[in-house]
Design brief:
This protein is elongated. Helix 10 packs antiparallel against helix 13, helix 11 runs parallel beside helix 13 and helix 12 packs antiparallel against helix 13. About 45% of the residues lie in helices and about 20% in strands. A hairpin with a 2-residue loop joins strand 2 and strand 3. With about 575 residues, it is of the alpha+beta class.
Length: about 575
């Protein structure tokens, strides 16, 4: 009753070898040799935030949650934290940061996104090339306009204003397509306005003093700053190509009621449409009236989100009515991104801290060591049981567990690189449980094989018939484990999902190992004299199986029958 598996078990073993080599090859190419550990194993802080809208707002939307996640990611990464994990689930955002303390992490992620509109007083290249010295402004007083500003890409105007058709050339960009643009000297406006009056607390009459200007000259993108709407601010664009000296906030994000991107009727270019609240519209009219009178090159304001300048449109006229348009050479993606920033900055999502968990690095290391020791202890117990009960077949158990460990380890490492899978203490628990699942598959097969031998079949025949019956039981048992892992993964949250994931992964690996390694190995061993003739230490000897002798074998050592020769006895009575 030979089958493909019986006659060519080597093919399956070669296929397994190819899989193992391929996995290690991928690890070598990606230079990934260690698993991604969770905070409970390496130390750090995990904070769970529950989103709620501000008063008067509607229900929290998925778009708001995703935008908040992006903002939090920028905050955490901007603080120089590496390998932070930020995950959303419904109205919850879970932030896990290695090495962070509770107070620092809550300060970074717990506050609402800060969106401000500020007047631009100066703009310079963030990393300027060496330039010849120039004559400074007399008496150190600011000129009221940026000293070096790229040609503006965007402008803001009243809603319904027709957009002029481009004259065949693209406008140069403040931020540029990829955050790059060549700064050009600002032309002197005709009728340059007089310097603003002394500071009176009104952001529209603010004047940067020499101290602020000196600090701005030394400012570098990435330097920490306080984002105070009542004070001036230094800011950089997303690409860190330009740095800006900005005045106190003239408008806040909460002064916006809506923002959207679209192409106007009869138009051809994407634009961003703004709608302000009643109070915000009044502030905006006052601000645009003031900024538009500052002259060409000085009539810019910045849209700043969490300290980063998102856009710097120009204002050429007062804008009444509580609505406006930002126009320029927007692509669809650029227009939608800016609209999302403005929209979700205008309607920020507030967060309540649901839970905070901090694990020290030492405790994380101790838990990792404890998990490894527990796994090794479980593995040792299974190996001891296998040799005591199955004797020589215990070698198959040890080899199968070794192959399963190699496959599990490589996949955990590669999944951490590919999908961000993080190994936690609960995940290690899932790996330990999997040792029992794998051992259970061996027990089912070996006991079925021994039953077939007891029923009078030869060892080679029992290997095949026993497998044909045992594999259905193995598949059914592993399917139940997979189903349980899937349900647990879907319904659970947090670290419990790690347990479910590793349980499901190792169950699949068990099926692979028992089909393409354990069964072919038993087939090959059954062809050897040690196992095939029932050696006392093989685990398949007659005494261990509870039979008098192996089917197809004599009770004692096999001997050749005596050769028959013609009889030489003389008949009674002598010769005739």
């Amino acid at each position: 009753m030979a089958t493909t598996t019986t006659s060519r078990p080597g093919r399956l073993l070669i296929a397994l070898g190819v899989i193992v080599v391929l996995l290690f090859g991928i690890m070598a190419l990606t230079k990934t040799w260690k698993p991604k550990l969770g905070l409970d194993l390496r130390g750090g802080t995990t904070i769970t935030l529950t989103a709620r809208n501000l008063e008067g707002g509607g229900p929290v939307t998925a778009d708001q949650i995703n935008e908040a996640k992006n903002i939090i990611s920028q905050r955490v990464n901007g603080a120089g934290v590496a390998e932070a994990d930020i995950v959303t689930s419904g109205n919850h955002i879970t932030v896990a940061v290695p090495g962070a303390t509770q107070d620092s992490l809550v300060a970074q992620v717990g506050q609402t996104a800060l969106l401000y509109f500020r007047i631009v007083y100066d703009a310079q290249a963030a990393n300027p090339a060496p330039q010849p010295s120039t004559t400074p402004t007399p008496s150190g007083k600011p000129s009221g306009k940026p000293s070096t500003t790229p040609t503006p890409k965007t402008s803001i105007k009243p809603t319904g204003t027709p957009t002029a058709k481009p004259n065949g050339r693209a406008w140069s960009s403040v931020l540029g397509k990829a955050g790059q643009a060549t700064p050009t000297p600002t032309p002197k406006p005709t009728g340059t306005p007089s310097a603003p009056p002394a500071n009176t607390g009104d952001p529209l009459t603010y004047t940067p003093d020499p101290t602020v200007q000196a600090a701005f000259a030394k400012y570098k993108c990435g330097d920490k700053q306080e984002d105070d709407p009542l004070k001036p601010q230094f800011s950089c664009d997303k690409g860190k190509v330009y740095k800006y000296l900005l005045g106190p906030a003239i408008l806040k994000g909460t002064d916006l009621s809506d923002a959207s991107a679209g192409i106007p009727q009869g138009g051809f270019q994407w634009q961003v449409n703004l709608n302000f609240t009643g109070e915000g519209g009044t502030k905006f009219l006052k601000a645009t009236t003031n900024i538009s009178q500052r002259g060409e090159g000085a009539n810019l304001f910045a849209i700043v989100l969490d300290g980063t300048t998102i856009s710097t449109p120009t204002v050429s006229q007062p804008i009444p009515g509580g609505s406006a348009q930002i126009t320029g050479t927007f692509t669809e993606t650029e227009a939608r991104d800016l609209a999302n920033v403005l929209k979700f900055g205008a309607l920020p999502v507030a967060f309540d801290t649901s839970s905070v968990e901090t694990v020290s690095a030492q405790l994380g290391g101790n838990q990792l060591s404890a998990g490894i020791y527990a796994g090794l202890a479980g593995l040792a117990l299974v190996v001891i049981f296998s040799f005591l009960y199955y004797r020589g077949l215990g070698l198959v158990v040890v080899a199968s567990l070794g192959i399963a460990s190699v496959l599990t380890g490589t996949l955990v490492i590669l999944l951490g690189k590919a999908i961000g899978f993080t190994l936690t203490l609960s995940g290690i628990a899932g790996l330990i449980v999997a040792i029992g699942i794998t051992a259970d598959s061996f027990v089912i097969y070996f006991e079925r094989l021994r039953d077939e031998v007891r029923e009078g079949r030869s060892l080679r025949s029992s290997v095949e018939t026993g497998w044909a019956r045992a594999k259905h039981t193995i598949i059914a048992a592993d399917s139940i484990s997979l189903l349980a892992a899937l349900v647990l993964y879907i319904l659970a949250v947090g670290s419990v999902r790690g347990f479910a994931f590793t349980l499901g992964l190792t169950t699949l690996i068990d099926l692979v190992v028992v089909f393409i390694f354990t069964k072919p190995m038993v087939t090959l061993l059954a062809r050897t004299n040690f196992f095939g003739h029932g050696h006392k230490l093989s685990g398949l000897d007659p005494e261990h199986l509870g039979v008098e002798r192996l089917p197809g074998h004599s009770a004692g050592p096999a001997t050749k029958p005596a050769r028959k020769t013609p009889s030489t006895r003389k008949p009674i009575g002598g010769e005739v």
